[in-house]
Amino acid sequence: MADKKIHVFGHTNPDTDSISCAITMANLQNEIGREAQSYRLGEINKETRYALNMFDLKEPDLLSNIDDNANVIMVDNNEFTQCVPGIENAHIQMVVDHHRLNLHTTEPVYCIAEPIGCASTIMYKLYKQDDVVITPKMAGIMLSAIISDTLMFKSPTCTEQDKITAERLAKIAGIDLYEYGYKMLEAGTDISEYTADEVINIDSKDFKNGELKITISQINSSNIDEVFKRKAELEKAIEKKITEENIDLYVFVVTDILEASSKVIVLGNRIDIFEKAFHTELIANTTYLKGVVSRKKQILPALIEAMNQKIQL
Ligand code: MG
Ligand code: MG
Ligand code: MG
């Protein structure tokens, strides 16, 4: 008999939302009488660590592959390129996400996808739908995810729903939303102990568009210049990754959490796609993108549009 347990996890290089959704979804399943466990698909970052400590939550176990036909709930992700090895043959029961859909299954799947700022906002609604009480701990990690994904409501992905939900959750958790939120975001900006290799992998996602392989990595910062002091070292790490993984376009995004804008390093043999997408010319592989903070809503769609544009004669 196949293992009945439901494995719940987000994306690789997990962020606070992936961890929050895994924990809160596994808890919700337990509360409604199903056997479920949360997992992480990689190391916990410093921001998430801060949130887990704050609300006295244990980090989920690491999952490095998934058995054939294992029961799975995917949260904060629906792309196999950002998932655990073996996912193609797992039994996906449910998906809760707020990214573009890129999912192919052989069986029908219960899929909840909304174009909102954070998947944890959907989790809040699922608790309400199932009439399950949200404890202060669950509220704390959900609201941490909303602050993280929406960059304290400044991202263009943020909706009124995300904001209202975060405010309600802050009351349940008994904390000051803004005071806690900025401390948590700030905790995630410390890259001093990371090697350049580690920095570019903190929050890195791979995408395929036809034959083209694109990687977009992102870090938050409260001092972009400080990060760019390590530019040469970071570029070396990116170049190495491009060669090893045959990446056509690599975009490394450093997002200023206070300005809500980003400075990027762009490398690869198809930097022309980036220049076309953002109507800009890179200088020393970099440029500043005012008001750009969202990979899913601003960077990736612009790149895809540029790639799909027919060459005009
Ligand atoms: Mg995420
Ligand atoms: Mg998310
Ligand atoms: Mg993110």
Instruction: Give the % helix.
Output: 25-40%
Query: Strand portion, in percent?
Result: 15-25%
- Counted beta strands: 11
- What name goes with the CATH superfamily of the largest domain? inorganic pyrophosphatase (n-terminal core)
CATH second-level architecture of the largest domain: Alpha-Beta Complex
Low-confidence stretches: none
Write the layout of secondary structure elements.
Blueprint: E1 6-9, H1 16-31, E2 36-40, H2 46-54, E3 61-62, E4 71-75, E5 91-97, E6 110-113, H3 119-129, H4 136-150, H5 160-173, H6 177-187, H7 196-201, E7 204-209, E8 212-221, H8 224-228, H9 231-245, E9 249-256, E10 261-267, H10 271-277, E11 286-289, H11 295-308
Parallel strand pairs: 1-2, 1-4, 2-3, 4-5, 5-6, 8-9
Antiparallel strand pairs: 7-8, 9-10, 10-11
Helix pairs in contact: 1-3, 1-4, 2-4, 2-6, 3-4, 4-5, 4-6, 10-11
Short description, anyone?
The chain has 313 residues and is of the alpha/beta class.
What can you tell me about this protein's structure?
The chain folds into two domains: 6-187, Alpha-Beta Complex (inorganic pyrophosphatase (n-terminal core)); 196-312, DHHA2 domain (Diaminopimelate Epimerase, Chain A, domain 1), CATH 3.10.310. Helix content is 39%, strand content 20%. It has helices spanning 16-31, 46-54, 119-129, 136-150, 160-173, 177-187, 196-201, 224-228, 231-245, 271-277, 295-308, and strands at 6-9, 36-40, 61-62, 71-75, 91-97, 110-113, 204-209, 212-221, 249-256, 261-267, 286-289. It has a six-stranded parallel sheet with strand order 3-2-1-4-5-6. The longest helix is centred in the N-terminal third of the chain and has 16 residues, at 16-31. The site of one magnesium ion (MG) has 6 residues, from loops.
